[in-house]
């Protein structure tokens, strides 16, 4: 049960040290929530981040309709 995705976080900050890199301002960060933790991800752009977030939210809504 602990590995089931229950949500998505779109307000994950850059990891320590990443904010100093020249390209970090264009990157996007998000996380997926499980019962035990938040798994963080880095995307090449904020647009990519938005696509991932919308896709994960869509899948969660589909799962909710099935159960």
Account of the protein in words:
The longest helix has 21 residues, at about 45-65. The chain has a three-stranded antiparallel β-sheet, with helices on one face. It is built from one helix and three strands; from the N terminus they run βββα. The chain starts with 6 loop residues before the first strand and ends with a helix. It has one domain (about 5-65). It is flat and about 45 Å long. The chain is an alpha+beta fold and about 70 residues long. A hairpin with a 4-residue loop joins strand 2 and strand 3. The chain has one helix at about 45-65, and strands spanning about 5-10, 30-35, 40-45.
Present the secondary structure layout.
Elements: E1 7-9, E2 28-33, E3 38-43, H1 46-66
Antiparallel strand pairs: 1-2, 2-3
């Amino acid at each position: 049960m602990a590995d089931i995705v229950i949500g998505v976080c779109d307000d994950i900050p850059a990891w320590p040290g990443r904010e100093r890199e020249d390209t970090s301002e264009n990157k996007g960060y998000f996380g997926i929530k499980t019962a035990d933790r938040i798994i963080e991800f880095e995307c090449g752009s904020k647009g990519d981040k938005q696509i991932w977030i919308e896709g994960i939210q869509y899948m969660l809504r589909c799962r909710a309709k099935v159960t």
